[in-house]
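Lab meeting prep.
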Amino acid sequence: MTLKDPNLYFVDISKSVQQAIKNGLPVVALESTIITHGMPYPENKQTALKMQSIIESQGAAAALIALVDGKIKIGMTEQELDDLAKAKDVIKVAAKDIPLVLARRKLGGTTVSATMRIANLCGINVFATGGIGGVHRGAQTTMDISSDLEELSRTPVTVVCSGAKSILDIKLTLEFLETKGVPVVGIGDTKDFPAFFTRSSGYALDHTVPDPTFVAQAMRFNELMGVKNGIVVANPVPKEYAMDEKIISDAIENAVKEAQEKGIKGKEVTPFLLSKIKDITAGKSLETNMQLAYSNADLAAKIAVGFVNIK
């Protein structure tokens, strides 16, 4: 399929993003749950605008993705972004939910798995987000495993993130990615898989490369070999915005306990925990969240530019 295919009548792509794809220029996808479920207004809008600005300053196009009135929106105007940032009753959309949310003409914020699937549909192969989903604590009995991990095993999109939140079982998350053949790589002095709010989860990465160009080259080799999995690029939150590991660990333990007591499950867990952690940390976690998103957007753009420049 191409974007001109009449079967893709439900894709509404901005002129700037479409032109970049058509001309083989770098494009970075952005999810929308960071806006609809991850942050309050106006910080959610501010974060999205700055991520877009950072990506564009590196010479790439920013493709913010959401579901709006039966259409997949790829690239949004500032007014459309403002409407999304203020919206209530937005559905949190994983990859499996896309057709149903489109059919119901509902407003949807795309998660990592949904954003990856849509990006791949349109030929976008780099995506910046905050953190990936993973294996939840207690998954041995609940089987609560994010669809992000399965999508990474079958969709050739490179995801730049600050690891996974330590509300998850990070050891099992990395084991799952290993089993599914998804490489997890750090850049520069990044030796450990980050834990979103903190720079290290205590689990070492299998691969570290000197700079973004090496990730771009790995993407090209995957493409040449016909490999269909994604790549996870683990980019720790900048040091000056990282949170104290004990403070965040205690906050998470308290939030997890409250979620269990209230019977909160499935896709509602992460928004609940993030909100509670924000309250417990007196708002510091929100600033950390914003800063790591900016850092990931910058790195993703460098990888996207590096990829299109490979001869």
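Slide two material, second protein:
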Amino acid sequence: MLTFTTAGESHGKCLIAIVNGFPAGVLLDESVINDDLKRRQGGFGRGGRMQIENDKVCILSGTRKNITIGSPICLEIKNKDSKIDVLPDVTRPRPGHADLPGIIKFGQRDARNILERASARETAARVAAGALAKILLAKFDIKVLGYVKGIGGINSKKVTKDPNEILKNRNKSKVYCLDRLAEGKMIEKIKKAKKKGDSLGGIIEIMVFGIPPGLGSHTQWELRLDGIIARALMSVQGIKGVEIGLGFIFSKKFGSQVHDEIFYCKDESGFKRKTNNAGGIEGGMTNGGVVIARAVMKPIPTLKKPLRSVDIITKKPESASTERSDICAVPAVTVVGEAVVAFEMARCFMEKFGGDSIKEVTRNYDGYVNQIREI
């Protein structure tokens, strides 16, 4: 089984991701991973920490001559701003953060011991692991792309089904949005939030192109792919809601208006849909369409003009603590969302077509594709 785990604190020495179950025989290009790490640090609205760190991965194990050998892959990202032992205690928990629940759960009197691991800095390790998954999926012409749909109530109406167009427009945008008109309005809203000492959230969208039908399963609740994707996205710091396909719009429509009708072409294309309201997943399984997931990120809890709180030592009313933080990290979250969805898609892919080497995986995949054509 393809799995990963992360370790490290925001201001610790480094972040680590350990990936198990990755097949042998795959060439790993560190620059591909570093490109995603750099993109995670970008986007209009990021804070001062991004001016300090220059995230780069070091592959410590699991490869020889840059080719995977089937053993665990250890990815290291060093922190330049490493000062965890000299940072001051934090006794005024921030509303909306892990500070107070973590203090209560772990019996602490210093929120620093909670926030260092709860910090979204941890997502750099997840992006590195997700980049490995994308390298694997690319072997089978599967692409996972994330971008911004909305920030602070300003939403993009642009829709495209072309992955190359998505890449082109997203990479030109300061907020990783496909809509230039919406981008300008988003940037202005972020500037206003900064002047007010406030923060903004938004909506991201992740699309998976080229995924075959049959990943996931209807047979057990934990095997349903939509549930797997929802859990992965909900695990990202700041995410408070997830939808697949039309999502909540389903509640406003008749069934005849939303279900994707099935057609059959006698050529090699086989079964087809003219619409994709289901977001590429039916009954917990991919149906051959583009997988579409959206997630909502709340505004960042750390504010320059902090909200009311209570000092956990004195129990007296105080303003919440302040940390160096972003005004808006929605663009960065598109990269994290892309990574976690990519990893889950790769994990389900390996569960179905798995082998110890990329040759074995390819053979299994090709056999399945031929099987589909015979149906």
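Talking points for slide two:
The chain has one domain: 3-374.
The chain has a mean pLDDT of 95.
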